[in-house]
Protein 1
Amino acid sequence: MKITIDLMACKAYANCLVEAPDVFDFSEETGKAIVLEDGVPNASIEDVRRAIDACPTHAISVVE
Ligand code: SF4
């Protein structure tokens, strides 16, 4: 599973962190969401799908 975040689209609403806290976090540097690479192998696709649905700016993409 490859998860990417469009940083131009991300407006830091944090919905993704709420839905999939093992996969997403915030970058202190950019103030935008990041993908925790070590969380991806164990990530629940359901959690990731909820995060995608919860993102108001459609910034999250996933390739399974
Ligand atoms: S829910 Fe979308 S806009 Fe909000 S932090 Fe996550 S990726 Fe960014």
Protein 2
Amino acid sequence: MPGILVVAEHSNGRFRRVSLEVLTKARELKGALGGPLAAVVAGSGVADAAGELGQYGAETVYVADHEALGSGVAAGHVDVVAGLQATHDFSAILIGATALGKDLAAALAVRLGAGLNGDSTELTAAGAGLRARRPVFGGQNLVDAEWTGGPAIALVRPNSFKPEPNGGSASVESVTPELGPVASAVKVTGRKPAEEGKISLEEASIIVSGGRGLGAPENFSYVEALAKELGAAVGASRAAVDAGWYPHPSQVGQTGKTVSPNLYIACGISGAIQHKVGMQTSDVIVAVNKDEEAPIFGFADFGVVGDLFEILPKLTELVAARKAG
Ligand SMILES: Cc1cc2nc3c(=O)[nH]c(=O)nc-3n(C[C@H](O)[C@H](O)[C@H](O)COP(=O)(O)OP(=O)(O)OC[C@H]3O[C@@H](n4cnc5c(N)ncnc54)[C@H](O)[C@@H]3O)c2cc1C
């Protein structure tokens, strides 16, 4: 039977944004690949949330609600998805490239003897099959891959697509997972966020990023102060990361993260193509740069030509005043 299964991840009381992005894309692919479009959510205490996936195009949502699935360990999730595949024979299984998603996809591909395309940044229909694009060699080349047999398993890089609800609704079906011994062989005894209260770059609706124009690592405090007032995440260009000014997980661009916030404020970033490809789908781009010829002004929605060391403190102050008033 043809059809697409999207593996949706529920974490900290909500669906991961990448799951909704993948589901939106699957809705578009359904016309060419054939339906039905189903989603599966596995976890502990996830049953009530499942219906939300209907708003993004899932016709059926399979829910596997079990204590052993709440640990964040992929083994049980593999059992659930492999079980659904055995009964429904989906032609494509699409998974967001989160930490759990990556583990799940690799183990699932081995279990099903199926092809896996990791780090997909585009998915298109190739006849009745699926084609996935992925960057290779540090983003210097793009590869288009097609599957010669099913199911086609694709891991999708966060922020490759925009999540768009279509107001649909899904029928929710509960499935009883047949968990293998590995699912309960590992127990998570505790969790500690990398940095308490820090907003995830990939899920942030506002990002303030800093580049080489900051001049020194301590000057990221200008970017952080503005980000704090805006409730934004902090990003960085590769030049800033390579200089050791900010950690690599904050890097935006071809060899960093792809982001798509409502607002992206680039401070002291020239706008090289490798940075642009990681943030160009942001809804509104604001650039602060002292060089009016900087390439970033060629694609920013709003440009401020000036010294960031004068502009950022004023902007931070204005945002704080607006919030207080
Ligand atoms: C294979 C490959 C992959 C890459 N991947 C990435 C990637 O993922 N992400 C990425 O970002 N880059 C990536 N790069 C690097 C990219 O080509 C650029 O070198 C990098 O983006 C430049 O960073 P920048 O804009 O911070 O620095 P610069 O290009 O040096 O720009 C600094 C800017 O700050 C401005 N400035 C200086 N002082 C001030 C001030 N006081 N006030 C206001 N503005 C000021 C300058 O006018 C200038 O425009 C990659 C390159 C390669 C070859």
